[in-house]
Amino acid sequence: MPDDSANNALDRVLAAVGECLDRKSAESLLRLRADAEMQARIEELADKCTEGTLSEEERQEYDSMMRVGNFVAILQAKARRLLADGHAA
Fold it and tell me: Which among 89, 85, 71 is positioned nearest to 11, based on CA atoms?
């Protein structure tokens, strides 16, 4: 089952990242944001997606950006949990 395998791999990576986080790293991860240029591009592609006018190349770019954004969001959630639980030294 590919989905279970992908989820298992993601869980393993997140667990390894969690073991690497100290308080300073976790706090830095929580401040991580797209720079202004990337944020503008994301918004441009999001608008085009809503309008249904994305080219195939733009759709691939937008999908990639969303996957990266989701991954960063998961890492940030992990960092918040570690800080809240006092596990990040």
Answer: 71
Would you give the distance in Å from CA 15 to the centre of its chain?
15
Q: Quote the pLDDT of residue 1.
A: 41
Query: pTM for this one?
Result: 0.78
Concatenated DSSP letters for the chain? Answer: -HHHHHHHHHHHHHHHHHHH--HHHHHHHHH----HHHHHHHHHHHHHHHHT---HHHHHHHHHHHHHHHHHHHHHHHHHHHHHHT---
Q: Tokens at residue 72, please? A: 């960063």
Encode pLDDT of 28-65 as tens digits.
Answer: 999 999 999 999 999 999 999 999 999 999 999 999 99
